Amino acid sequence: MENIRYSPKRLAEILGVPAKQVAVAIGKRDGYGPADLAQARHALHRVPAPRARRVQLFLNFKGGTGKTSLSSSYAYRLAERGHRVLMIDLDSQGHATKCLGKEGGSFPRTLHDVLIRKTPIDEVTIATGMPGLSVVPSNLAMSTIDLALMPLAGREFRLRKALEDVKTKYDFVVMDAPPSFGLLNLNALMAADDLVIPVLADFLSYDGLRLLFETVQGLEDDLSHQLEHIFIVVNAYNQTFKIAREALGALREHYADYLLESVVRQCTKFAQASSEGCPIFAFDPESKGASDLEAVLNEIQDRVNATAHAGAAGAAT
To answer: Which residues lie below 8 Å from residue 151, measured CB to CB, with a gap of 6+?
Structure first.
C-alpha cells in the first residue's frame, strides 16, 4: 500500500474540507499518500472523537462469499476515516494480510504465538501503509491452531484475553475468519461484539446461515456470551438474475432483523484490487463496489451508535 496516491479532490472529500485547505495543511499540491492524509487530518483537527472499542468479526461457514475482500477494505476505510484499527487475519491462507499489501509468509510470528505461547499481541502486530491501520498477519503456521488449542485451559477465551491488553489502543478490531467452525473461530466469536455475515444471493447461503445462527445460540446458552449485533450483508449481488432477486426477497422475509438494507453489487474491481494487495477504497474509490461498501459501513455504524445511545439514555433514566 506504499504506492497509494490520493488526488487533491479525493483527499479533500475524505477530510470533508476544501482542497485548498489540504494543500495549505500539507505544504504541497499533489502527490499525496496515506501519510499526507494523516498529517492533514491532525493539522486540520479532523480526528474522530474517542469512542469505545468495537470488535467486529466477518464470518460465514460457507466459503466464497467475499468476506476477505469486504473485511480488509472495511478495516482500511475505517482507518482512512481517522480511526485506530487492528485487522486480525485468522485464515491460514493469509488472504486478508495480502489484501493489505503484506505477505504473511514473510513474518515469523502470527496469532498462533499469541494464543498458544501467550506472546503479547503487540509483538506480532505489524504496521501497514495506512497510518492507524495495523494487522496481525497469518500464514500456514495457523493451520494447526485448532489442534494446539484443544488441550489448553480456557481455550475458548484466549483471544478475548489477548485483546484486553490492547483495549485502549484501538477504536476497532476487525477480524477475518476462515469458512469453518473450530476452536479458533469459537475464540473469535467469544471476543466479538458484532458479527458481520457476508452472503451471496443464492439459496445455498441458507445452510451456512442456519448453522451459524445455531452456533451463536449455543454460545448464548452454554458460554453466556451474547453478540451485541449480527449484520447480514448481501455481497456480489446482480439484480438481473431472477434467482438473486428471489433469494434476496427470502432473506428479507426470514432474516429481517439482521439483514442490512445496503447490498454490495457484483464488482470486478474487488478481485483486481485484491490481486494488487490493495483495498477497494485505495484501488478505485469511485467504483460501485467502494460506493456500496461505504453504504454498508455507514449502516453498520449507525446501528451500533443507535444502540449505544439508547443504552446510555436508558442508564441515565
So the answer is: none
Residues 42 and 58 in one domain: no
Q: Which amino acid is it at 89?
A: D
Residue 26, all three cell numbers: 500539507
CATH number, domain of 161, equals: 3.40.50.300
pLDDT band at 317 (very low <50, low <70, confident <90, very high): low
**CA–centroid distance for 270 within its chain:** 15
pLDDT score, position 251? 93
Q: Does one domain contain both 4 and 70?
A: no
60 DSSP 8-state letter = -
Cβ atoms 294, 77 nearer than 8 A:
yes
What digits encode the pLDDT tens for the residues 209-257? 888 999 899 888 888 889 999 999 999 999 999 999 999 999 999 999 9
Helix (H/G/I), strand (E/B), else coil: 56? strand
**If you write DSSP's letter for every residue of 244-282 in order, what string do you get?**
HHHHHHHHHHHSTTTB-S---B--THHHHHHHTT--HHH
Strands 85-89 and 54-58, bridge-based pairing: unpaired
Q: Are 28 and 70 in the same domain?
A: no
Total domains in the chain come to 2
Residues 3 and 152 in one domain: no
Regarding whether 236 and 97 lie in a shared domain, the answer is yes
Looking at residues 283-288, what average pLDDT do you find? 96
- 75, 121: one domain: yes
Task: List Cα–Cα distances, 300 to 4, 127, 279, 293, in angstroms.
Answer: 26, 26, 19, 10
Per the structure, the complete domain to which residue 195 belongs is given by 51-316
On whether both 67 and 37 belong to a single domain, the answer is: no
Residues 72 and 32 in one domain: no
Residue of 301, 265, 271, 296 whose CA lies nearest to 284? 271
- Cα separation, 26 vs 70, whole angstroms: 31
pTM listed for this prediction:
0.96
What's the rounded Cα separation, in Å, for the pair 205 and 199?
A: 6
